[in-house]
């Protein structure tokens, strides 16, 4: 892979980001990789590399950039419950940054940066955890640029708030794939039904899948939640989604 860290200007500063693409091929479609709340690290970079290996240029921003360059916080042993709890306590205040306005403004800046490196045309998204919520919001905010969005072990997509992401479903023109864990307190069956109803009412083409036995964070091999079978199914579903939508590479 040809990979490097790049800087992305945003309305609130500069986000460091991981840019990766195959060794060969310059005119490749783009995919924006929206990481989980744990941060930009080896696992998320390896996942971005895998997506790029299918024939894409992939940008994975440090979505916590307001608090510093990656790693914003030292990544603990996430298989240790006590270490994870302490990490989440530190991380908690940073999550207040992920307002609708910030996600839309940052997302537009990330898409602008990606388009500088990708072939002209629609882009794809894939998001994880809070990045899944981010992908949903950005698909609604930028329907002219986003043609496909994968949302995996996402949380906070259907809430009781007046700006809940699911309420923006009517703005989505992209095809969506929503890959939920069936043991995820951040995405209950009732929330899944609410999201599906909103997407159905808006006429959005989407697939909803619940991975049996999987927990929140099932794609992340550096955490105790990792589920290899569910993670591999997620890669297969994402590759198929990107291949059948306008970001598809020319094979």
UniProtKB/TrEMBL annotation:
Keywords of the record: Hydrolase
Keyword Hydrolase (UniProt): yes
MF (Gene Ontology): hydrolase activity
Entry keyword Cytoplasm: no
SUPFAM superfamilies: alpha/beta-Hydrolases (SSF53474)
Cited Pfam families: DLH
InterPro entries per record: AB_hydrolase_fold, Dienelactn_hydro, Dienelactone_hydrolase-like
Occurrences of domain Dienelactone hydrolase (ranges): 16-242
The species this protein was found in: Paraconexibacter antarcticus
Annotated protein name in UniProt: Dienelactone hydrolase family protein
